[in-house]
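Annex B. Sample input.
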Amino acid sequence: MRDETKELALLQDLPQVFAYPAGFLRAVESGLVGLEPWWLLEGESLCTRVAGLRERFPGRRLVPFARREDNDDVACWDLDSGTVRVIHDFTTPGRENRREFVTFYDWLRAAVEDFIEFG
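Annex B, continued. Sample output.
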């Protein structure tokens, strides 16, 4: 079994002021990396998404952590608001916000509901 936390921690493109929240690391260490339709980003796909979000939304400080497989939604930490935001990637800047959650666990609860509905 590979160590997903190592793949996350080695990403050097993340802002230096950012640290993964303990709840997120706990979820990864517990194996919650795929809650269909949501999948946690890691390795090369994480690097690609970080670079892409910077290019597409240069006015935002977003750190992505999950993508939805059936559309272009991405769950991110918004470093400016301190919340978790689900944004619709590949859209016009200013139209990307879909949902907002106070904490990672709030997002995780919604992801479990999506899992139930998706199946």
